[in-house]
Amino acid sequence: QVQLVESGGGLVQTGDSLRLSCAASGGTLTMYAVGWFRQAPGKEREFVAAISRSGSTTLYADFVKGRFTISRDNVKNTVYLQMNSLKPEDTAVYYCAAGVYSSRYATPSTPKQYDTWGQGTQVTVSS
């Protein structure tokens, strides 16, 4: 089973951009669909975006469509989340998660559909 490590979080201002990385070790991500979730203080963990094993299919939460882009580099064993036009309400701990799926097109969108999680990276957007 792979291990996941997120990086790239930080403190930015409204309208800025960040790119989060989710690096896998201990195995290859090619059999895994990967998702990004976030959790703000006092709130439940929510789905942000997912990408299929092949990278050919992506899924986004409505509140990030047009602003965030998920991508993957299976050679580097890394998945990225490019976040543009950040807003204060995007402030949260961002987690990446991976799940093995036989389908090359699956883009799971609930936490229960993933069995491997990273430790999270903090994103803070000031107004």
Q: Give the radius of gyration.
A: 13 Å
Tell me the fraction of residues in β-strands, as a range. over 45%
Helix count from the secondary structure assignment: 0
Helical amount among residues, as a percent range? under 10%
Could you say which overall geometry the principal axes of the C-alpha atoms support? Answer: globular
> Would you report the number of β strands?
11
Q: Describe the sheet with the most strands.
A: 7 strands, mixed
What sequence of helices (H) and strands (E) makes up the elements?
Answer: EEEEEEEEEEE
Assembly state of the chains shown: single chain
End-to-end distance: 40 Å
Average pLDDT metric: 96
Low-confidence segments: none
Structural class: mainly beta
